[in-house]
UniProtKB/TrEMBL annotation:
The lineage of its organism: Eukaryota, Viridiplantae, Streptophyta, Embryophyta, Tracheophyta. Residues 127-152 have a biased composition (Gly residues). InterPro entries: MED32. It comes from the Eukaryota. This is Mediator of RNA polymerase II transcription subunit 32. It comes from Lolium multiflorum (Italian ryegrass).
Amino acid sequence: MDSTVDELSAAYKEFVAAAVAVMEARELSGGQKTASTDAALESFKQRWELFRVACDHAEELVESIRQRIGSECLVDEATGSSASPSAPATASAALAAPGIKPISAVRLEQMSKAVRWLVIELQHGAGGPSAAGPGGGGGLATPAAGAGGQHVNGGIDSRFPEDGTQ
């Protein structure tokens, strides 16, 4: 993470320096277009692109960390794990919703992946009967279904048989 912050900081400083160089070149040329102003503008464009790339890298890092923290919190909540290591096990069980049994972290991860793939498919238009086209089935196949032949029909994922009993 430190390297990403350092990369972003360096790119920003170079971008600002390039902007200053453009202003100075314009001032020296009296506002006229010269080779030095063109060179300064070209350098500015390059630094702008490098800065944008550094921002994208930082954004990807933040998003990755956010998703990991969210997944860990979801697993902790679903499995009844305590958020603080000093809390007794009975306290974490008391925090769980009444009548809902904790599920295993592995099952939760499988369900999470299935939901993610379904969202991706829906975003790409593979979701409904109208998107399936003529002769297409009404069910959704997950990308994992290619290997395992697992399909989701009517909102029930065949990989999770207990979902049908809910």
